[in-house]
Structures are given as C-alpha cells and as structure tokens.
Write a structure and sequence with these properties.
284 residues, alpha/beta, Rossmann fold, six-stranded mixed sheet, 8 helices, 45% helix, binds guanosine-5'-triphosphate
C-alpha cells in the first residue's frame, strides 16, 4: 500500500471483483450482469465500450468496438464485450428513430428473447417476430441480469419528436426489465448537458451520467474522464445490488415480458394494417 487513499482505484477494484454471489440473497440463479446499450446512430455507444475497457483494464487505449463519425450506422451486430468476470457490455446497432418498427426488436433483446452476437435486422413482419420468440423457448435465458443503458449525445439537444418517442421507449424499457434505463450523456463538453439531464429526469429516468468518451483522436488519460466512466459502472452495480435485495422469479418475469411483447407486436400490426387500409381508401 502506498499509504494514501486512492478512491478511484478502490472503485475500480470493487467493479472488477463484483460478483452476484455476494448480493443480499445470493445470485438467485443469475450469473451475468448484461449492460445493453441503445441509442440513436453515432451517439457514442461503441466509444463508451472502448472507454470502459480502457479505464477498467488500465492499459493502452485499444479500439475493441469499431467507432467512427458517419451518417449511417457503423455498428450492425449486437456484440458482447466482457468487462469483468461478471459484467458484460453489449454493443448495438444505432436507431434512426425510436418508432415501433425499431423498438420492437429492442424490447425482444431486452427481454433476453434474442441471442447475442447476431446481426440486428429490423422487421415489421408479425409472423417472423412471433416465430423468433417461439424459437427462443428452445433455450430460454434466465441467467442474465439485464440493465438497459440509453446513450445520448448532448451535441444536438432533444427535438420535440425525439422527446415523445424517447419517453415511451424509456417507459417500455422498464416494463421489459423491471429497471429504468440508465442514461449516459456523451460529448458532455460539446453541448448543454444540464439541459439534456433535466429533460431525461423529467421523463422519469433516475440516473443520468455525463461523460466525455475516450476516442481514437483523444484518449489522453484525465482523472475526470476516468472517474466518470467508473461512476457509470458503479451506478449500474448499485442498481443491481438494490434489485437483488428482493426475491426474483425469472420464470414468472419472462412470461410477463413475453405477454407485453406479444401485445406490443399485435398492436403494431393492427396499426400498420389500419394505416395501409386508409392509404388504399385515399387512392381509390
Ligand atoms: N469528442 C467526443 N467524441 C465522441 C464521444 N463519443 C463518441 N464520439 C465520436 O463520435 C463518433 C461516433 O461514435 P460511435 O461510438 O461510433 O457511435 P455509435 O453510437 O456506436 O454509432 P453507431 O454504431 O453508428 O450507432 C466517433 O467519431 C467517436 O469518436 C464523446 O463523448 N466525445
Ligand atoms: Mg457503434
């Protein structure tokens, strides 16, 4: 020991050593904390993963998840990156909007109905979605404790349309996982992060973390940036610890989530049919 306190190192050690077995009621059958990232295209999801690896591993900066400035999505697959023995972070394809077309897929991911490490394709096809849900019963996943993480860059600020769909998405995330998503605001030095934080808090989000990601161009270590990333991971584990103080019933929860999802997909199908019929009526 160097003889003086190094709180950031303590936090990092705590995160590295975190085990679900040490939760109040034991692991309750879970063996992994899965941080599932979501967000609009190019808002810094992949960069957040690279930042977490950099800070936790404490070595050279390395690009694990491909990240770059682009008008199209850079990430197309849902790739899992283990951060510690217990915590895995999952990259995701960025959404153009958070409408029912793209969110249906995300809700299925959140409920652990879609296997990891697959290409993400959005589909509006009802039968196809139902079949995928049924396929997931072959090998149901009860061992992942999922925490949704919504990544949002403060560079632009939330437009009115975005606010409405984001609020709905956040509420549904909670229905699918039992927890509110943690919001990570990226690019905090390039916009009004206080305003963005306020908007998300007003939507009911409980934890808003502000970070400046380490990037290919700028990854000189700073104490502040290291602390923010550790604070993000620590906050996630606080939430896990809280939830794990209560008896969980993964089988029952899975059934409830499936009901929600089936209902969501059904309503989406009905709305789509109605829209198709009314546009046909207009043409005739
Ligand atoms: N300055 C700064 N640049 C960032 C930050 N986060 C991401 N970037 C940059 O923004 C661009 C997009 O970042 P990505 O991490 O690829 O974003 P993404 O959300 O994974 O994008 P998709 O996979 O396309 O949805 C890259 O050029 C990053 O270097 C940040 O906090 N600060
Ligand atoms: Mg990406």
């Amino acid at each position: 020991m160097a003889g003086y306190e190094r709180p950031a190192d303590h936090v990092r050690d705590y995160i590295r050593r975190f085990s679900l077995d040490n939760c109040a009621l034991g692991s309750q059958g879970y063996n992994r904390v899965l941080l599932q990232l979501f967000g609009y295209m190019g808002h810094g999801k992949s960069s957040l993963i690279n930042s977490c690896k950099y800070v936790l591993d404490d070595g050279e900066y390395h690009i694990y998840a491909k990240a770059s400035a682009s008008h199209k999505s850079v990430t197309y697959s849902r790739t899992a990156y283990p951060l510690t023995d217990t915590i895995t972070i999952v990259d995701n394809r960025g959404c153009a909007t958070f409408n029912a077309y793209e969110t249906g897929e995300i809700y299925a991911q959140l409920g652990n109905f879609i296997p990891l490490n697959q290409r993400v394709e959005w589909t509006n096809n009802y039968i196809q979605m139902i079949n995928r849900l049924e396929d997931s019963e072959m090998d149901p996943n009860f061992t992942d404790f999922t925490i949704p993480v919504f990544v949002y860059s403060v560079k632009k600020g939330l437009a009115e349309g975005e606010k409405k769909e984001t609020k709905e998405f956040i509420d549904n995330c909670r229905k699918m996982t039992g927890v509110y998503p943690i919001v990570v605001l990226t690019n905090k030095t390039s916009g009004d992060f206080l305003q963005a934080e306020k908007e998300f808090l007003l939507m009911g989000v409980e934890k808003v973390i502000k970070v400046e990601n380490y990037t290919r161009e700028d990854h000189g270590r700073t104490q502040g940036r290291h602390k923010e990333i550790l604070h993000f991971l620590y906050s996630v584990l606080e939430d896990v610890n809280f939830q794990m103080r209560y008896r969980k019933n993964p089988r029952k929860e899975r059934i409830e989530r499936k009901k929600f999802l089936l209902n969501f997909l059904h309503e989406r199908e009905v709305t789509q049919r109605l829209e198709q019929t009314s546009s046909q009526d207009i043409r005739n």
